[in-house]
Amino acid sequence: MSSDVILEEFEVLESIYADELIKLSEKEIRIDIESDSLEDGEEFLKLTLTVHYTDNYPDELPNLTLQPLDGEIDEEEMNDLLDSARAVGQENIGMAMTFTIVSHLREQLATYVRTRSENRRKEVLELERKALEEEEARTRGTPVTIVSFKEWKTIFDGEISLRKTREEEEKLKAMTAKEKEEYKKVAVRATGRQLFERDKNLATSDASLLEEGTVSVDISQYERIAPKEDEEDRLEFSDSD
Questions:
Q1: In this structure, are residues 71 and 48 in contact, taking their beta carbons and an 8 Å threshold?
Q2: Residue 24: inside a domain
Q3: Distance CA 19, CA 98 (A)
Q4: Domain residues for 91?
Q5: Which residues contact 168 (CB under 8 A, 6 or more apart)?
Q6: Domain annotation covers residue 37
Q7: Which CATH number belongs to the domain containing residue 28 in this structure?
Q8: Whole-structure pTM over 0.70, yes or no?
Q9: CA pair distance 58, 128, nearest whole angstrom
Q10: 100 Cβ partners below 8 Å, 6+ apart?
Q11: CA–CA separation, 157 vs 126, rounded Å?
Q12: What is the number of domains present in the chain?
C-alpha cells in the first residue's frame, strides 16, 4: 500500500477520533478506546490500540498491540480482545480496516461491562436469597412483623454496604491519583436506587400499608417455586398444603 493511501486513511480516522487518536509516525497510530453508554453503577473500561501499518497493507494485517488504561482487564481478557481484533482484520483484508477493528473493540468492552454488571446483580440477588432463607428458618413458626423485618433489613443492608466499601477501597489502591480523581467524578452520579430512596413519600407509603394490615404469618406453610426463564426477578409462592 502506498504512503498516499495510508495518509488518506489517517485523515479519515483523525476526523472520526479527533480526541482519541495520536499519530506516532508515518505508519503508526495510537487510538484510545473506551466503553460507552454506561448505566448507573457500571464499571468504566478503557484501553489503547496501537496500529503499525506494513508496506503491504491493506492486503496484509497491520501489527496490533493493546494496553489497558482504565478499569480492571486481566491478561486473559486482553489476549481475547487482541485475538478477536486480528480476526476482524483478517475478515477485512484488502480494505481499510482500522475503523472496523476499533468499533469491534468498543463493542467488546461494552459486552464486558454488561456481563460484569449482570454478575454483580446476580451476586446481590443470591445474597438476598440466602439471607431470606436464613430469616425464614429462624422465624419459622413465629409471627413476622414490620418491626422484625426492618431489623433484619437494617443488618443486611449494613453487610452489603460494608462489602461494597471494601471493594471500593481495594479498587482505589490500584489507581493513580489522576485515575482516582476521574473515578470519583463518575461515582458521584446518583444511581436509580439512590433517587428512589430520596423520595420519602415512596419510602413511607409501603410501610404504612404494611402496618395497617400486619398479620402473623407462618412461613413454613409456603414453599418457593423456581422462577421461569422469562421471569428471573420474580418469586411466586404456593400453598404447600
A1: no
A2: yes
A3: 16
A4: 3-110
A5: none
A6: yes
A7: 3.10.110.10
A8: no
A9: 54
A10: 88, 89, 92
A11: 14
A12: 1
pLDDT tens readout for residues 116-150: 888 888 888 888 888 888 887 777 766 678 888 88
| Amino acid letter, 172 | L
Q: Dump pLDDT digits (tens) for 16-56.
A: 999 999 999 989 999 999 876 556 666 778 899 999 999 88
CA 142 – CA 170 distance, rounded (Å): 41
* Residue type (1 letter), 70: D
d(CA 167, CA 161): 10
Cell of 49: 490500540
Nearest to 20 by CA among 69, 87, 90: 69
Nearest to 113 by CA among 195, 19, 187, 42: 42
User: Please, what is the average pLDDT of the chain?
Assistant: 78
Q: How far apart are CA 80 and CA 208, in angstroms?
A: 53
Chain-centre distance of CA 1, in angstroms? Answer: 40
